[in-house]
Specification:
The complex is a heterodimer of chains A (131) and B (341).
Chain A: H1 5-28, H2 35-38, H3 58-110, H4 117-130
Chain B: H1 3-37, H2 53-62, H3 74-91, E1 100-101, E2 111-112, H4 121-142, H5 146-177, H6 182-187, E3 192-193, E4 197-198, H7 201-204, H8 206-219, H9 231-234, H10 244-268, H11 283-302, H12 310-340
Antiparallel strand pairs in B: 1-2, 3-4
Helix pairs in contact in B: 1-10, 1-11, 3-4, 3-10, 4-5, 5-8, 5-12, 8-12, 10-11
Classes of the chains: A mainly alpha (131), B mainly alpha (341).
Chain lengths: 131, 341
């Protein structure tokens, strides 16, 4: 099918499928909750504290640099379609764009944002020794 | 309503139905292949050679109790699996799976095999597959369980990290084809070089294809990159607290996402429905065979390669795969311009 109608029908079918399945299981399944069943799973022990705690700042950093680089990828698509018309001028523009971006990439790398686990710990030790 | 519109609606319905079947078949195939790789038979009781096993599984899950742990967010807890499965279905909408056909002369004008045909198909596939992350993050956060939260966090960080390489690898194919319509990209791969080698983009983009496949495995949270549900560390990750059908929808979404990933790889790298021996009307058989081969590789990899460590995954994605995909793109651009001029 041409156009967006097909996508919209597909989304509607997906929502309908999920709703029907969940509705069916609510109808067919038993329902007798107990406090033990409703407790969050923590290997059989009573749960300690809330799960909505603070978590590593690492994940926020990844999300931020992802945003930057993903916008760059979004720029690539129209450029890729039009490259044959743009010619070598378009190519030089892209390489310049990548060079500017790579400054930020190298900065992020040197700052250790891309290091996880043992590598990140080693980096922190080195920084402490240098200080 | 004219006949052509009805046929197009039927094609959408068929696509939807086949996606449900694909997820059921993949459950079966995964267990069967795993069984044979471990020198046992796998499911064998329900139906001939255990073929009805997925049906028995879903019936069993339908009869189970729907539990929502205390402290879980009432609405988001139900919304999360719905989001995941809807995004999985919708992502396949713009993936074409066959050439244009008049259904053996039934119609005056040919119809296109595929749910929707858009001139920005590749972008739509991207946009919708990215929506799948929301399902997983919301599932992890709304459960009010620590394992779920960590599973959801890991999944989101992993998926956004590999989406970069994945998208950059694909843009090199767009460069070769000069179009964002998946159907046009497939038709750009018709014919042969020197009369024997099919003009598939995988031969022009071997590195890009490799990056796409690796990133695709990470995007769909499959082994060896299945950290969101690493059993030894996180019990079951983001779906620890889920039960019954709300649980079943997550693996189903994962299997449908695998199918979409394989179908996009087939269309963009392996020539889609173009192949020797069969007339264009039967091209969808080639399409199915190629998708099946990629899906088998997926399962094969899962039961062959052990899981990585999370820090290895993130460093590999950001420090190796992403620069490699950028270099691949720049080299491709230079070569396209050199041979075009």
């Amino acid at each position: 099918m041409d156009g967006w109608l097909g996508v919209i029908i597909m989304i509607a079918l997906g929502v309908g499928f999920a709703a029907v399945m969940i509705g069916l299981s609510l109808l067919l399944g038993p329902h007798n909750p107990t406090p033990e069943k409703l407790a969050p799973y923590e290997c059989g022990m009573p749960a300690v504290g809330s799960a909505r705690e603070r978590h590593s700042v690492k994940f926020y950093l990844v999300a931020m640099i992802f945003l930057l680089f993903d916008i760059e990828v979004a720029f690539l698509y129209p450029w890729a379609v039009a490259l044959r018309d743009l010619g070598w001028a378009g190519f030089v523009q892209l390489v310049t764009f990548f060079l500017i971006l790579s400054v930020g990439y190298v900065y992020v790398w040197r700052k250790g944002v891309l290091d996880w686990g043992p590598a990140a710990r080693a980096g922190r030790h080195a920084a402490r020794r240098a200080a | 309503m004219d006949l052509r519109f009805l046929v197009q609606l039927a094609i959408i319905g068929l696509t939807f139905f086949m996606l449900i079947n694909a997820s059921a078949l993949l459950v079966y195939a995964e267990r069967k292949v795993m069984g044979f790789m471990q020198q046992r038979y796998g499911p064998y009781r329900v139906g001939p050679h255990g073929l009805l096993q997925p049906l028995a599984d879903i019936l069993k899950l339908l009869m189970k109790e729907e539990l929502r742990p205390k402290g879980a967010d009432r609405w988001l807890f139900t919304l999360a699996p719905m989001l995941a499965i809807t995004a999985a279905f919708a992502a396949f909408a713009t993936v074409p799976w066959g050439a244009e056909t008049t259904l053996f002369g039934l119609l005056d004008q040919p119809v296109k095999l595929g749910a929707a045909d858009l001139n920005v198909g590749v972008l739509v596939v991207f946009a919708i597959t990215s929506m799948g992350v929301y399902g997983i993050v919301l599932a992890g956060w709304s459960s009010n369980s620590k394992y779920s939260l960590f599973g959801g966090l890991r999944a989101s960080a992993q998926m956004i990290s590999y989406e970069l390489s994945y998208a950059t690898a694909l843009s090199a194919v767009i460069l070769l084809a000069g179009s964002l319509s998946i159907r046009e990209v497939v038709d750009g791969q018709a014919g042969y070089w020197l009369g024997v080698v099919p003009r598939w983009f995988v031969f022009l983009q071997p590195v890009g294809f490799l990056i796409y496949v690796i990133a695709g495995v990470a995007e769909t949270n499959r082994a060896p990159f299945d950290f969101p549900e690493a059993e030894q560390e996180l019990v079951a990750g983001y779906n620890t607290e889920y039960s019954s059908v709300r649980f079943a929808l997550f693996p189903q979404a994962e299997y449908i996402n695998m199918t979409t990933m394989a179908a996009v790889a087939t269309d963009l790298y392996l020539g889609g429905w173009h192949g020797p021996f069969l007339p264009a009307e039967y091209g969808w058989i080639w399409f199915l065979l190629k998708v099946g081969a990629i899906l088998f590789t997926y399962i094969w990899v899962r039961w062959t390669v052990p899981r990585y460590r999370y820090d290895q995954l993130m460093q590999f994605g950001w420090k190796w795969l992403f620069p490699a995909s950028v270099v691949n793109l720049v080299v491709t651009a230079a070569l396209v311009l050199y041979f075009h001029a």
